[in-house]
Amino acid sequence: MSPAESSHDVLVIGGGPAGSCAAARLRQHGLRVLVAEKCAFPRFHIGESLLPAGNRVLAEIGALEKVAAGGFIPKFGAEFHRADGSQAKKVVFREGLVPGLDRAFQVERARFDALLLDHARALGAEVRMETTVRSLEREGAGYRAVLADGGGEQAVTVPWVIDATGRETCLMSEQKRALEPSPFPKRMAVFSHFHGVARAAGPAGGNIVVVRLDGGWFWSIPIDAERTSVGVVTTVAGFRAAGLSPEAFFQRAVAAAPKLRELLGRATPTMGFHVTSDYSYFRRELAQERLLLAGDAAGFFDPIFSSGVYLATWSGKAAADLVARAHAGGRDLTPRERRAYTRTVKGHARVFQGLIEAFYDEDAFDVFMTDPVPCDISRGLISIVAGHARLTWPLWWRFRAFLLICRLQRHWKIVRRPAAPATAAVGEPVAG
Ligand SMILES: Cc1cc2nc3c(=O)[nH]c(=O)nc-3n(C[C@H](O)[C@H](O)[C@H](O)COP(=O)(O)OP(=O)(O)OC[C@H]3O[C@@H](n4cnc5c(N)ncnc54)[C@H](O)[C@@H]3O)c2cc1C
């Protein structure tokens, strides 16, 4: 099979949020873009709760109005609960330090991802659905890719590649082999969509609800008037030790936690239970001379703070901007640009990593749940939870102070945990 010289400047692999944003942005820069997406859309995808900071990216690529008109549920904040119902914390985005981050959307990803990909198409990207990129090799000044669809295989050569293939892909390039050691134990999620999950009245009904259990947590995300996405996160070791089917594990965790019984007492699943595991990782290098990784293809941490789609859209846009600049100069990405991209994407992700570590740590979680966190830290934390991961000085010192108080809490109990009956670990049987 001799490769066809593609008339495109950039091959974007994957039509999820990272790929769509990259493609739309490349079109705004006037580049010729080919998107290869292995699935037919609309397709199910987990990751339904968006962050306010993501609206800025959507606005920059010209898609925010379409999303706002898409009938998605507005999300004005987040709620965190202890499983025994002894403590709750409400985060209201508009009370944050950074203006303009007052709302986001809860989305059914099948519709949201299709909308974004259609937007890239409307801007002039050529989108080939049900087309899998099977292999990718350096050739000349660019890459040779083998694309497979129902009609067979075709090889194309392109000067630039943005790999936005997400977490579950077989496509490996040299760059994707080196992984950084994960700071987290191997975790997994069991999830489904439900009818009949209890919601707050009024605008707060659009909030994400996070319920923390010993060794895990639950999410509840309203995705339309009737359906709610609910999932439980636990360690792979804990799930294996329970020796249950995913559904039985899920139901037993619900039965063990008063807060979950309150939310899910009348709920019935509208589809089967999905399982995904082992999802925290980061690639060592995120850019080469002519290729960038964006979104989950670059890395992904635990989804507690709903950072995935924001990081995917933001990195997709950033990757497109870099490609456009180098392409206009007729050159490769410089080592400095490559390092800066890797550093910036990981820098954003590390802010969420700090929050995630605090969530799983008993003492730090006590501090997080205090309302308000002392020293005017709360307003900064709200903006970070809203996705403002670029830490300007007012956010930076508050975040550092929060992490410091969390460390001090280990030795001196600065904040008090409410007295509560012991909660069962995820999947443990309910006593009695
Ligand atoms: C349990 C769980 C819960 C989550 N909850 C949230 C949440 O509430 N909020 C949030 O923001 N994020 C959440 N996330 C993360 C979120 O799902 C991802 O970060 C997000 O989907 C990343 O977007 P992406 O475009 O990088 O990848 P994807 O959305 O996975 O898109 C990748 C696309 O590439 C295509 N593809 C793959 N390989 C190939 C190939 N070889 N050729 C062609 N196409 C290919 C795939 O078909 C897919 O459409 C969650 C993740 C998990 C695991």
Structure description:
The chain is globular, with a radius of gyration of 22 Å. The chain contains twelve helices and 22 strands. The chain is α/β, with parallel strands linked by helices and about 425 residues long. It has helices spanning about 15-30, 50-60, 65-70, 110-120, 235-240, 245-255, 260-265, 310-330, 335-360, 360-370, 375-385, 395-410, and strands spanning about 5, 10-15, 35, 75, 75-80, 90, 105, 125-130, 130-140, 140-150, 150-160, 160-165, 180, 185-195, 210-215, 215-220, 225-235, 270, 275, 280-285, 290-295, 300. It has a domain at about 5-70 and about 105-180 and about 280-335: FAD/NAD(P)-binding domain (3-Layer(bba) Sandwich). The protein is about 35% helix and about 25% strand. Helix 6 packs across helix 7 (about 260-265). The structure holds flavin-adenine dinucleotide (FAD).
Keywords:
432 residues; alpha/beta; FAD/NAD(P)-binding domain; 8-stranded mixed sheet; 5-stranded parallel sheet; globular; binds flavin-adenine dinucleotide
Concise account of the structure shown:
By secondary structure, the chain is α/β, with parallel strands linked by helices. About 35% of the residues lie in helices and about 25% in strands. The protein has twelve helices and 22 strands.
Per CATH, the superfamily of the domain at 4-72 and 107-179 and 280-333 is FAD/NAD(P)-binding domain
Query: Count of helices?
Result: 12
Bound molecules: flavin-adenine dinucleotide
Q: N- to C-terminal separation? A: 67 Å
Taking all residues together, what is the mean pLDDT? 91
CATH class of the domain at 4-72 and 107-179 and 280-333: Alpha Beta
Helix content: 25-40%
Radius of gyration: 22 Å
Q: Helix/strand-derived class?
A: alpha/beta
Give the overall form. Answer: globular
Unreliably modeled segments: none
Q: What is the strand tally?
A: 22
CATH topology of the domain at 4-72 and 107-179 and 280-333: FAD/NAD(P)-binding domain
Judging by the overall fold, what is the CATH architecture of the domain at 4-72 and 107-179 and 280-333? 3-Layer(bba) Sandwich
Largest sheet: 8 strands, mixed
Strand content is 15-25%
